[in-house]
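Please decode residue identities from the backbone states below.
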């Protein structure tokens, strides 16, 4: 098995704990679509069938999602997650064959549970 290299750029910001912290804390502000795309990518990255190059793309996109001070800082009302939505959408398109219906279903279920907890 080939040894994985340390990711470059935003992928260096990726970490599973950081991802879950961001997912939970940004749900209300980021919106369902942003979080659902991030979760689809997260579940695809954890799937052993996802190739290494696709994981690199995914980790870059999730790292960008995690960093609060990216092109449009996440703390800005209304617009803060627009750039994240673009990056996540592009990543899902780039690795589309690796994002399965199971990944999409798990993402939808997670978002549904978050909405229930938030009383939405």
């Amino acid at each position: 098995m080939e040894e994985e290299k340390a990711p470059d750029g935003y992928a260096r910001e990726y970490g599973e704990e950081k991802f879950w912290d961001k997912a939970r804390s940004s749900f209300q502000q980021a919106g369902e679509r942003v979080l659902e795309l991030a979760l689809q990518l997260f579940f695809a990255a954890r799937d052993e069938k996802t190739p290494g190059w696709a994981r690199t793309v995914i980790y870059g996109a999730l790292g960008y999602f995690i960093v609060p001070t990216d092109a449009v800082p996440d703390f800005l009302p209304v617009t803060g997650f627009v750039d994240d939505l673009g990056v996540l959408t592009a990543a899902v398109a780039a690795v589309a064959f690796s994002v399965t219906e199971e990944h999409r279903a798990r993402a939808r279920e997670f978002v549904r549970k978050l909405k229930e907890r938030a009383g939405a």
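Observation: The CA atoms of residues 15 and 99 lie 19 Å apart.
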